[in-house]
Every structure is written in C-alpha cells, then in structure tokens.
Amino acid sequence: MTYKVCAFYQFAALPDYRELREPLRAFCAGLSLKGSVLLAAEGINGTIAGAPEAIDAFAHELAQAGLFGGRLNNLELKFSTAEAMPFGRLKVRLKKEIVSLGDAAADPTRQVGTYVEAAEWNALISAPDTLVLDTRNAFEVAMGTFEGAVDPAIKSFGQFKDFAAEKLDPAKHRKIAMFCTGGIRCEKASAHLLARGFAEVYHLKGGILKYLEEVPKAQSRWRGECFVFDERVALGHGLRERALRQQELDAARDE
User: Fold this and answer.
1) 3-state SS assignment for residue 57
2) Which InterPro entries did the record assign (predicted)?
3) What domain range is 14 assigned to?
C-alpha cells in the first residue's frame, strides 16, 4: 500500500483550541491516520499519513465548515507519498505556538513577508542584491539547501531571532529572500524581520517541498535532499523518497 502524506498549517485565531483537541483526535483516529498535529491559539500545524481517501477526507474536514467552523479556509497543504507508514502513532498536542520563536511581535496574521511562487523563486535568488537565507536548523541545512544561501547555524528555530539581531542589519540587508521546509517557519521569521524594520522580506510560498514538487530538476537550484520530520527522513525532486546512506540516517535521528 502506498500511503498519502499531508503536511499542513495555517495561522488563524483559534481561542478554543483546547476544546478542539479531542474532537480532532477522534476524527483522525476514525480515519486510521497517524502523525503529529499541533494546536495553539495562533493556528494549526502538522503532518499526517494514511490511506489516500482518508487523507482527502481529513483535508476536506479542516478546510470546510466541519470542526473548525470555516476558520481554516486558507490552509497551506502539501501532499506526498510514502511506501511505508512514516509515523508510529497519532499525536494531537496543545502548544503555546505552532512554531516556536518566542517573539510576540511576530504575528503572521497582522503582517508577513511577500510570498514568492516556486516558479518565480530562481529569478529572485539570482538577483545580486538579494540575501538568500535558510531559516532551518543546522542539521537540515547540512542535508541540502539552495545555492548561495546563508546558513544561520542554529540548533533550533527559537534561536533565529538571536541570529537576526547579531547578523542582519535593515540598513545593509535591504532585500531578503528566505525559505524553509514547508513555509511555516518563514511566516514567523518574516513577521519578525518586518517588525524589526526590514523593508523587503520575501519567502518561498509552500517552502522547499512546493519547490521540489513544481520545479523540474533540470532548472532547479536546490542541492541535496530536503529533511522531513518523519521516517522517510528526506525527499528529493518530485517529492520522491530518497535513499540515504546509513550514517546520514543515524546523524539525522541523533539530532
């Protein structure tokens, strides 16, 4: 059986997120889905896997009226496949943030960077006045990144604001193009930079996964694999599972 994998997120006001946990868990369990879902007052974030028809039913439930009353009508959804179930169990957890940065001023529902479609990304990052910034953790960057991208050398996304304070200057870095796995970290990172006075902040819509899905390998400026937080470990162009050397697998899991 080939499993369908759905990575999703949306920043949206969910003041009742605690009450949503059990109905959402029960709905996912009823579809035999496995994976991880985070709920917070600021929105939802997760990756789940299951039978194709079950994933389709799940996506429909989130995006339509259903459990969330139509509040998730702008979900960022990305689909891929896995030859084996990439998750051991189902987890629906409550969090303070759906992606942890620790900056109350970084509110993607109020301001966020300019979205750039995958088809337009190469032109943006090729411009000589663009600082290309990888917002992911160091071990993810080591597995693959875009040509010429700056590695912030952080162990967790929460350290991004320290990197920005020490290494980025609104007067010097006037045009920043950032990227991450699926787009969610860039929502927070771009909101953080805008709040600090950076004028032009762009981010790859749908993240690396959308780029690998839509941009042909022959035209790609991506080098290496894209780490994903499940048992597949990494994906390549076309969102195909990639066979990695055992030491790479071990290193990724150690992190």
Assistant:
1) helix
2) Rhodanese-like_dom, Rhodanese-like_dom_sf, TrhO, TRHO_N
3) 3-94
